[in-house]
Amino acid sequence: xxxxxxxxxxxxxxxxxxxxxxxxxxxxxxxxxxxxxxxxxxxxxxxxxxxxxxxxxxxxxxxxxxxxxxxxxxxxxxxxxxxxxxxxxxxxxxxxxxxxxxxxxxxxxxxxxxxxxxxxxxxxxxxxxxxxxxxxxxxxxxxxxxxxxxxxxxxxxxxxxxxxxxxxxxxxxxxxxxxxxxxxxxxxxxxxxxxxxxxxxxxxxxxxxxxxxxxxxxxxxxxxxxxxxxxxxxxxxxxxxxxxxxxxxxxxxxxxxxxxxxxxxxxxxxxxxxxxxxxxxxxxxxxxxxx
Length: 291
What we know:
By secondary structure, the protein is α/β, with parallel strands linked by helices. The chain has a single domain, classed as Rossmann fold (3-Layer(aba) Sandwich). It has 15 helices and eight strands. It has helices spanning 45-48, 79-92, 105-116, 132-137, 141-146, 148-152, 159-166, 168-177, 188-198, 201-214, 217-228, 245-249, 252-257, 274-277, 279-289, and strands at residues 6-12, 15-23, 27-31, 53-57, 98-103, 121-127, 232-241, 260-268. The protein has an eight-stranded mixed β-sheet, with helices on both faces. Strand 1 and strand 2 (15-23) form a beta hairpin. Helix 2 crosses helix 3 (105-116) and helix 7 (159-166) crosses helix 10. The longest helix is centred in the N-terminal third of the chain and has 14 residues, at 79-92. The radius of gyration is 17 Å and the shape is globular.
């Protein structure tokens, strides 16, 4: 699925992070969302490699990366720690500054990376998210009904872990198949890989810890940024699906302008899973923005 890419596991920040790397040109870090892995980029990776030196990783807790048990305060799944994983991966590849594109959970890691390591992120693209704090503060019945998993996964362990593990295939298809395009964007190989992860109890726990951190310690960090009037300094482009929840419930550009200094963006004619639903349009956006 990643022709001409090499795979390796790097020991960084006390964990092992799996990465695929390839291509030539300016370095570009790709960060995936839930409940997936680096494979979300398989429809764009080969073309991106013609223009960029691409690094696509599995986030801590996902795919083939380490899945440490969560701490009582969920700090080891804070976006601060997950961002540190990624900046250390890029430094291991020799990249001190680079472009970043993050989808879903990967976008939240990318947000924190740009805040904590402003000298490292030259440009930032975020796919189908508004800032975590803004989304929680603006939660209403419509959002809570559509993004039910946000409130299910944060329940104390092992409640969601046990329920997901009882039938991981049913859960996976319910979660990713409920969007605008159903299951049609996902290849059989990608679905099999996502299911393999959700069939691993350690991965299920880690994914829940990611969400628990977002509802606790990540909000502390976000509020500290707000108090300090710290914003994302690099150019930021946000793209979202016009058939998805961000379009229905949030003003993504306005939300990101509240935390970023240089923000633009637009909706694409698709749902949430942009890299797999609309790879051609995403490629055009990435080549243009990161040029």
